[in-house]
Write a structure and sequence with these properties.
It is built from 13 helices and 18 strands.
Length: about 500
C-alpha cells in the first residue's frame, strides 16, 4: 500500500462498502478484505474496522475469523457484529436482546476519544437482534440506549473500541465525526489519498494492464461510463473505441442526445433495440432480465470489437454499489440483485474486463470526473441503470409498455427538474397492476405509474424526497391525461434500506 490505510474486514454487512467510503471521505485510503483473511500488517496500516453482519457470534456457523487481527498493535473498531465478535473473543458475553433495535435510537455518551466534540447524546441508526450483556475484562461502557446498556465500549490500553450502532450511515447524525475521531484521531492517519492522486495511479495501472492493446468502452452517456472513458482516454488515447448501444430501453430522446454530445469521441452507435426486446419477451423475473441484458450487451461489444484488430479489452463503468449488490464481494454478503455488468456477464466472454472505477462510489466518480475536466452537466447527471427501463418496467417488457413508460418518465423528468430539489434520482416506474378508473363517463382498466424521488450521497442509502403535493398532483394529472395506458399514479415513500432505489 503506497498510502496510509485502514483495512475493513467484511462479515457480510450490506454496508461494508459504505464504511470504506466514509473512511475515504476523510482522505484515508481503505481496502476491504474478507473476514477469513489471515492477519497481516502492511507497513502503512494505521487501523482496522470489523464490519457488521447478519450472523450471531455464538452460532456454530458464524463466519470464521483469526483473532490475531486484534494483536497487530493498531487500533481496532468493531461495528455491530464486529463489536459483538470482539466481546466473544476477549471473554465477554453476547446474547439475543430482549428488545431488538432496528431503526433510529438516541445514544447517551460518556467521555471517550471516539466521541470527541460530541454532546451528551446523539441520534444513531441501530440494526441488531443481539447485544453485549457482559463486557470483556478491561473494557468500559461509553454509550447506552434505553434498551441497550452497552451501545459503545472501549479498552484504550488495548486500542479496541466497539459500537453497537452504525456510524457509516447518514441516519447516524454524528457518524462522520465519530469515524473522523477514530481514523484521523485515534489511528493518527494524516489523510494522503485524493482523487487527483487516484488519476495518476489509475492511468499508470491502466497502461500496465492494457499494454499495447486496444479497448472497447461501453459508453452510455451516464456519469460512470463517461468518467471511465475519460480516464481511459487519458491513459491510452486513440486506442480507446467507444460504443453506444441503443437497447430500446432508453429514456425518451436519449440516443440522439448522446450521439450529439459525444460527437468528438471515436463513438459508434449500434441499434440493437429489436434484439434486446425480442430476448426479453415473456420474461418477468428481475434477475433473468438483468442477465439477459448483460449477455446481449457483451455480445454486441464483442461483435463491434472485431473491427479493431488489437481490441482485447472491454471497459465498463462498474462501481462499488454494483458489486456489493450483485455478488458476495470478498465476504459472506447476501446477493441483493445482479447488475447487468457484474452478475449478468457471460462466462465465455471473448474480451477481458477493465474496470477503472470498480472500487469507487458515485460521489467519488463525480469528483473524479471534475478532476478529468468533464462538464458539470455531465458529472452531475442522475444515475440511470445500465439495463435501462427494463428494471423500471415491472413485469413483462414489451415495446408498447416501454413506450408508455418513456412518455410517463419524460413528464416526471420535466416536472421535477425546475423544482430544484437536489435529487439523487427522480423517475417513473410502470407497475404490472391494473386499476379501475373513470374517464369521460367511461370505465377504464389500465396500469399504474409510480413516481420515485430520493436524496442520497452515494446510492447505498437513500431517503424519500419531500416533493410538494401540488407538484405530485400536477404530474399525476399530466401522466393520466397525456399517456394512454395509465389511469393511476402513486408516490413511493420507501427508504433504502429496506427498499432499493430501483424497483428491480
Amino acid at each position: 500500500m503506497a498510502h496510509q490505510s485502514v483495512l475493513v474486514l467484511d462479515f457480510g454487512s450490506q454496508l461494508t462498502q459504505l464504511i470504506a467510503r466514509r473512511v475515504r471521505e476523510l482522505g484515508v485510503y481503505c481496502e476491504i478484505l474478507p473476514c477469513t483473511a489471515a492477519p497481516r500488517r502492511p507497513e502503512a496500516l494505521v487501523g482496522i474496522v470489523l464490519s457488521g453482519g447478519p450472523s450471531s457470534v455464538y452460532e456454530s456457523d458464524a463466519p470464521p475469523f483469526d483473532a490475531g487481527w486484534l494483536d497487530l498493535g493498531v487500533p481496532v473498531l468493531g461495528i455491530c457484529y464486529g463489536m459483538q465478535l470482539v466481546t466473544q473473543l476477549l471473554g465477554g458475553e453476547v446474547r439475543a436482546a430482549g428488545a431488538r433495535e432496528f431503526g433510529p435510537a438516541d445514544v447517551s455518551l460518556s467521555t471517550s476519544p471516539l466521541f470527541h466534540g460530541l454532546g451528551s447524546s446523539t441520534p444513531v441508526w441501530m440494526s441488531h437482534g443481539d447485544q453485549v450483556v457482559s463486557m470483556p475484562p478491561g473494557f468500559v461502557a461509553v454509550g447506552a440506549t434505553a434498551t441497550c446498556p452497552v451501545a459503545a465500549f472501549e479498552n484504550v490500553s488495548r486500542k479496541v473500541w466497539g459500537l453497537q450502532f452504525h456510524p457509516e450511515v447518514t441516519h447516524t447524525r454524528e457518524g462522520r465525526t465519530i469515524l473522523f475521531n477514530f481514523v484521523r484521531g485515534i489511528c493518527g492517519a494524516r489523510g494522503d489519498w485524493t482523487m487527483a492522486g487516484f488519476v495518476d495511479e489509475q492511468v499508470e495501472r491502466i497502461r500496465a494492464q492494457v499494454g499495447d492493446g486496444e479497448v472497447i468502452c461501453g459508453l452510455s452517456g451516464g456519469v460512470d461510463s463517461s468518467v471511465a472513458a475519460a480516464i481511459l482516454h487519458r491513459a491510452i488515447g486513440p486506442r480507446l473505441h467507444c460504443i453506444f448501444v441503443d437497447n430500446g430501453l432508453l429514456r425518451h430522446g436519449e440516443r440522439d442526445a448522446v450521439a450529439a454530445e459525444f460527437r468528438d469521441f471515436d463513438l459508434t452507435v449500434v441499434d440493437a433495440a429489436d434484439r434486446f426486446l425480442a430476448a426479453l419477451a415473456g420474461v418477468t423475473e428481475p434477475e433473468r432480465k438483468r442477465k439477459i441484458i448483460g449477455e446481449i450487451f457483451v455480445r454486441v461489444f464483442e461483435a463491434e470489437s472485431r473491427r479493431y484488430t488489437g481490441a482485447r479489452w472491454l471497459a465498463q463503468g462498474t462501481l462499488y454499489p454494483d458489486v456489493i449488490e450483485s455478488v458476495s464481494f470478498r465476504g459472506p454478503s447476501a446477493t441483493i440483485k445482479s447488475h447487468h455488468n457484474v452478475g449478468g456477464l457471460p462466462a465465455d466472454m471473448a474480451l477481458s474486463l477493465i474496470e477503472p472505477l470498480r472500487e469507487l462510489f458515485k460521489d467519488e466518480v463525480r469528483v473524479l470526473g471534475r478532476e478529468l475536466g468533464l462538464s458539470e452537466a455531465r458529472v452531475s447527471r442522475q444515475p440511470f441503470p445500465g439495463p435501462g427501463l427494463a428494471v423500471r418496467c415491472l413485469g413483462e417488457v414489451t415495446p408498447a409498455r416501454v413506450r408508455v413508460l418513456q412518455e410517463a418518465d419524460a413528464i416526471v423528468q420535466a416536472e421535477l427538474e425546475p423544482l430544484d430539489l437536489g435529487l439523487w434520482q427522480g423517475f417513473a416506474v410502470l407497475l404490472p397492476v391494473r386499476s379501475v378508473g373513470v374517464m369521460g363517463d367511461a370505465r377504464t382498466y389500465e396500469e399504474v405509474c409510480a413516481i420515485r424521488a430520493v436524496h442520497s450521497s452515494d446510492g447505498m442509502t437513500a431517503h424519500v424526497a419531500d416533493v410538494p403535493m401540488s407538484a405530485l398532483t400536477r404530474i399525476a394529472n399530466r401522466v393520466i391525461n397525456e399517456v394512454r395506458g395509465i389511469n393511476r399514479v402513486v408516490y413511493d415513500v420507501s427508504t433504502k434500506p429496506p427498499a432499493t432505489i430501483e424497483w428491480e
